[in-house]
Amino acid sequence: MLNIALPIAFIMISIALVLNLYRLVMGPNTLDRVLALDTSYINAVALLIIFSFYLANPLYFEVALLIALMGFVGTVALSKYLLRGNIIE
What we know:
Blueprint: H1 2-26, H2 30-55, H3 59-84
Helix pairs in contact: 1-2, 2-3
């Protein structure tokens, strides 16, 4: 059952990532682009976790955790920059 579900989930999340990249490039305003970038991080983490299940290698969980952490910090920094014009007060 897992042999069927993993490729389907991988394909669906890959499609979601492509749609996020489309919104990142063609977004009507900056806030939509920030939201698309944040969602792209989430999709990248999901792809890494699915790939880790597929290979049965727990090393990719740590990589996914690092990407999630960097994605959160990047989103907060970009949001502060767009809101105030500077990152460090």
